[in-house]
Amino acid sequence: MRPRDVRALIRPRRPILDPVDRTLAHCHTIDDLRRAARRRWPEGVRGYVDGGADGEVTVERNRTAYERFSLLPHPLRDVTEVDTRASLLGVESALPFALAPTGYTRMMHNQGEPAVTRAAGAAGIPYTLSTVATTNLEDVARESTGDLWFQLYVWRDRALMRDLVARARDHGYRALMLTVDTPVTGLRARDLRAGFTVPPTLTPSTILQMAAHPVWCARMLTGAPITFANIPGFEQDPMGAMAMSAELFDASVSWDDLAQLRELWSGPLVIKGLVRPDDVRQAASLGVDGVVLSNHGGRQLDQTIPPIDALPHVRDAVGDSLEVYVDSGIRRGTDLVIALARGATGCLVGRPYLYGLGAGGERGVTAAITMLADELRRAMQLLGVTSIAQLRQEGETLVRDTAPGSSRRVGADAGGVGWAS
Ligand SMILES: Cc1cc2nc3c(=O)[nH]c(=O)nc-3n(C[C@H](O)[C@H](O)[C@H](O)COP(=O)(O)O)c2cc1C
To answer: How many structural domains are present in the chain?
Structure first.
């Protein structure tokens, strides 16, 4: 090459002055966002978001479950126009996924839940606010421009629970999601080791952790105090997830509670945290509109089946009688494709948007949603499908379970749990 040719190849990079833009310019996948967020978070927050219960076997399996599938692309079909819209609980969403409920969100970035709801609204997808949010549901509703769902835990104090339901209804939350996989909280060893509480407890060890992350620390100190904003009376006590749920959650929760909730809430009602076909059948018989097959992202009972594996069994058991959502482990567009092709109505994502929030606040959440949207669109084009309906219709020919001994789709054994023998 002549010097002139080399010179022609040199492209000086314009410096990016805005720190968030600079961070996001280097993030191309959810994994990149995760790394960026982890650099900004103290150990307690890193462990709270990434961690799971007990040996974290489920956290790992939720990922490997998706990696087991093979895709069988169908080329030579015009894929110029791709439509990623889907109907989620009766309302059109720009994408076939919603943002899952996550507690303590302002610990990841002080922009917190309002930033997440704004990003979801701008992207045209639903956001589910957690009962243990760090912004109250009224303030989140004020910031929202999109479809809002509210997630409910069953409390010992049933009056408080009924009050939350009424507040959610009065402030425009369209759907109610009852989480049922938390009669007690899984052992979160990372939280205990790091002394993670909300609000943060100041001990020599947590002060050291925070001091190593001055930007996060400055945001926490200059923002409004972190509290369980929806739970009156719990504003001041620092406590971890396990202690909080031991104090507030009701381990006696049963199907009777679900029946009562159905009476109380006339809008779309979704049960989150089922994986067994017999349970989903029972939920359908009580008139719920949908279920989220979920193991809480591996944070509750360790070694629970990955929801993506439970999905075809559930679909065989209940057909199209109710909407079936899947979460836990979705990190890429191809994961969304696999879930939809195996019969999911739609998906929920949790950690991916928290990584975005940690990396860049509201813009980071937007980046996470955009990445998943672009990856989904590209995966559909490369697969040879142009709509979510087509993906579902042709799903069995497009996705193959390559685990040794697996059959592609297994019939339900009526009357039993629903697992094929
Ligand atoms: C940090 C964090 C907090 C969570 N808090 C709640 C919660 O308050 N209520 C709930 O129903 N699920 C909660 N979940 C579970 C999510 O709703 C969802 O099921 C899970 O994140 C899906 O797995 P994924 O993170 O691999 O996408 C939480 C998950 C995480 C990671």
So the answer is: 1
